[in-house]
Every structure is written in structure tokens, then in C-alpha cells.
Amino acid sequence: MKSSAHSVFIFSFILYYTLANFQPAHLNVVTKFEKKDSITYFERLMINAGLKLVVDYDSTIKVKLLYSTTDNFMRKDIYGDFDKAYLLPYVCKRLAAAQKYLKSKHPGYSLIIYDAARPFICQQMLWDYAPLSASQKPLYVSSPRKTSLHNYGAAVDVAIVNENNVQLDFGTPFDFFGEESQPQKEQQLLTQGKLTSKQIENRKLLRDVMKAGGFSSIKTEWWHFNAASRKIAMEKFKLIK
Ligand SMILES: [Zn+2]
Question: How many domains does the chain have?
């Protein structure tokens, strides 16, 4: 009897231990995308592509990757715990120069990065989930077939915050899909009363600062700036994948 009770105890213990540690196969798949793993994975991809941390070039530049939060058009955290801004070394230098120029004009202001190098797999997600019509989508999201300069660490999404860490008013939020986001329509939007002269002035400040650092703006998004053409990037830089 004693021996049988002992066996039951051992069996119960093994059963309990097995059940407590049991994970169905489909959950194991999910585990692979858990935050700790994805941060390591994405950062490794960036380091392998020769990218550097922006804050190592200028620690005063603020970073808040909005795809690492749910505060983006997808309402999904697609970066997990990956929340660092990586760019190609020469792009980091250009951004540091832009920050220096901004601070020479407005010492209390700072650039804030909303997105920098973006893994190619995330580009596919943005393309797949963007709530836009087929004709509108290419205006705001680069097709994975063409790739985005973000996928090489050669583009950055930025805004400016004041001394209280409050973002200046640029007329729309980051990733707002509508004509109000488009620098090419600013004058028309001002006439229509959809943008104020102050909002346009803030955008001009951002463009001046980024241009001083060596970036070019685009016609459709006030927050996006390029440090290379797509042709050069595709020829010379590594795709982050
Ligand atoms: Zn962008």
C-alpha cells in the first residue's frame, strides 16, 4: 500500500509538471514572435545590414517609434519591443547635423523620430493592412515589390517637439492618410482653411532643418525624409531582411 501510494504521488507529480509546462504546437509558433525574440531579431538584422543607432551620433534626438506602439494607422504594435532608431551611418550623421541646425535656431526644440529603419517584413504588413484604396495606397505606402527607403535605413519619419516635449502642430498626425498630409497641396489647403499658416510655418521649419542636414522631402507626407534615391539604395545598400 505504501509503495502504491508513493507511485500515485510520483505519477501525479509528473502529470502536474507535464501539464504545467505543456504548450500546444500553435502556441510555440506565437512564442517566436514574442517581444523578447523580435527585438533581438530585428536589431540583429539592422546590425547585419551595417546600420547604427542614431542616439550614438546625437543623444539629444528623441525617439518614439510609433509602429512599436498601437498609436499608428494599423492600431497594431508591429515592432514589439523593438523601439530603437537605426539608420545607415551617413544618414545618422545627416540627422545629427539637422538636429544641430535646429538647436542653433531654437535651442529648446528637438527632432523626434517616429520611424527609421524598418524591416522588410513590416513593410509587407503595412502594405497589406493599410486601409486605403488601390489607387491611394501607393501615395502613402511603398509597395514591397519596389521596397521603401526605410527598408535600407535611408529614410526617416520625423517631427519637432518643443522644450516641454510637446510636438509642434503640423496640421495632421503622423501617418494621416489624406490630402492634408501632402506638402504639395499646402497652399490650396491654406486657402481652403484646412491648414493654418502656423502649421505650414512649422512644416517649413522641419523641411529647412532636414534640408540643412542633407535630406530631401517628398510631396505626399510632411514627416518623411529621404537620404538617397531608391535607385541608389537598391544598388548600394542592404535590404533589411
Ligand atoms: Zn516614412
Answer: 1
| Pairwise CA distance, residues 111 & 210, whole Å | 10
| Beta strand 216-217 pairing with 110-115 | unpaired
Domain extent for 211? 23-236
Whether 11 is covered by a domain: the verdict is no
Per-residue pLDDT for the chain (241 aa), expressed as one digit of tens each? 455 555 554 555 444 444 443 433 333 333 344 444 545 689 999 999 999 999 999 999 999 999 999 988 888 888 888 899 999 999 999 999 999 999 999 999 999 999 999 999 999 988 988 888 888 888 888 898 889 999 999 999 999 999 999 999 999 999 998 999 999 999 999 999 999 999 999 999 999 999 999 999 999 999 999 999 999 999 999 999 9
Q: How far apart are CA 122 and CA 118, in angstroms?
A: 7
Distance from Cα 174 to the centre of ligand 1, integer Å? 9
Residue 208 Cα, ligand 1 centroid: separation in angstroms?
Answer: 17
Residue 153 to residues 57, 163, 224: CA-CA distances in angstroms? 15, 28, 13
- Asked whether the beta carbons of 147 and 183 are under 8 A apart, the reply is no
> Ligand 1 center to residue 9 CA distance, Å?
61
Ligand 1 geometric centre to CA of 8 (Å): 62
Structural domain contains residue 137: yes
Q: Please give the distance, rounded to the nearest whole angstrom, from the Cα atom of residue 173 to the centre of ligand 1.
A: 13
